[in-house]
Amino acid sequence: MTAEPDTRPLRLEIGARAADVVVIRMALRAWLSARGVPAADTEEIILGVDEVVANCVEHAYRDLPPGAVHLTARLRPAEGSIRITVADDGHWREPVAPHQVHGISIGGRGLTILRAVCHHHTITRGTPDAPGTVVTADFTRAFTR
């Protein structure tokens, strides 16, 4: 008899500071491991989520006092996926092309990386009256092996 998967969600809130991003990486890795997600899939999920969180840290609160980054991860057995939502209360910034620093391309790849590792994603942008951005990503590879 197979045990039912642990479907309790992971909910985290960190400060939008680069030094705090490691908290999300560590907690998400532990949460995925506890649900039996293979290590290679875990690393891809963390890569995609890390890019989204880094975008929040770098862009959402530019010209604003640092705010929070919220993460929720949910196992969705019926859909065969893991859904991860990352939200901030800052302001949306249009993605920019990578810029060159000493001949090396820097930045502008976060959403491209997310698209490469997740099955589907949505971005909900706030308004001047109701700021904030919500990125929701569904990861299915971990369930197709």
From TrEMBL:
- InterPro entries reported for this sequence: Anti-sigma-factor_SerPK, HATPase_C_sf, HATPase_dom
Q: Where are the transmembrane segments?
A: none
Query: Which keywords fit this entry according to its UniProt record?
Result: Kinase, Serine/threonine-protein kinase, Transferase
**What Gene Ontology molecular function terms does this protein carry?**
protein serine/threonine kinase activity
Where the record annotates domain Histidine kinase/HSP90-like ATPase, the positions are 16-137
Q: Where is the signal peptide?
A: none
Tell me the protein's name. Answer: Anti-sigma regulatory factor (Ser/Thr protein kinase)
Q: What organism does the record attribute this protein to? A: Actinokineospora auranticolor
Query: Lineage in the entry?
Result: Bacteria, Bacillati, Actinomycetota, Actinomycetes, Pseudonocardiales
